[in-house]
Amino acid sequence: MTLTVAPDHPQFREYYYAARKGIQLPAPEETKASSIRGSVGWLVELYAAAMDGMVKDGAMAEATQHQRGVFLDWLRAEVGEYKALMPQCELVKLRDKKTATPGAADNFIKAVRAMYSWGCDRGHVSANPATGIAKLNRDGKGATAWTVADLKQYREKHPPGTMAHLALTLFMFTACRISDVVLLGRGNEIQRKGVTWLDFQPVKKGAKRVRIPMLPPLFAATRASTIVGKTYLLTAHGRPFASSTAFDNRFRSWVISAGFVDDDGKATRSSHGIRKAAGELLALEGASQYQIMAVHGHASPKTSQIYTDGVDRDELAAVAMSLLSGMDW
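Request: output the structure for the sequence above.
Response:
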């Protein structure tokens, strides 16, 4: 009996065991590639299907899939009919089209490199043309950290009781990523010695579990909403956000309405910038590197990981978060 999916397909096991029982399953629509076999577009389609499976299995964050998908769709639109093993110089030309936004240019190459690495491991291609391409954004600064003035400006536009205010408060007093903030809810609350804590495992692969006390501003913000759902953050219809991408779009609209916008109408601040601000404020208030790692769920830097693994991360997080308890919010 012929299998209608390849071993790297996310449903391969289902099709394999069905065949073992004499059941012939029809070929799923997503495996019918529209691109020429052996082309860049063909490889993009295979990797897109694989990413669906990785997200479903928890091996890849939805945000990562979305970002890579956007860049790879653009790659396919530009050179989809090229042979999959394209010359590196052609890839560099594509990167250079994005030199106005060096961060995006580097992320494009990163997405392509990941796809080809996956393809090499499975025999779809014999080399990775993205290997060795240098970064354009060498300063490594990333997202712009919010200042105290930025936080104040946003809160003046979005007062307590609004979902926009709750979002900012969650980011500031948990220092979590957007992939985690959309999942947090009362189900993550635990009691320790009469104090309410948040206990959650970050979605990002390799991240350490985070347990931090809920400071009064955060506790008050989570109780200010009249609608209680599975998660703290809810849509206008009172439902959890469908994805971190859906919430990111909503948060950007709140940022823009608060006045953080460029000449093209795009937001100049991001949720990740609040995470950076939390880390910088903790450091400014005297938190140690290990305390910040405990709050952020970091497993690195590698040079200090060997020491932090044996430390009581709960106590470090409690001390670190207490440094923000006197902040005027």
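The longest strand covers residues 195-200.
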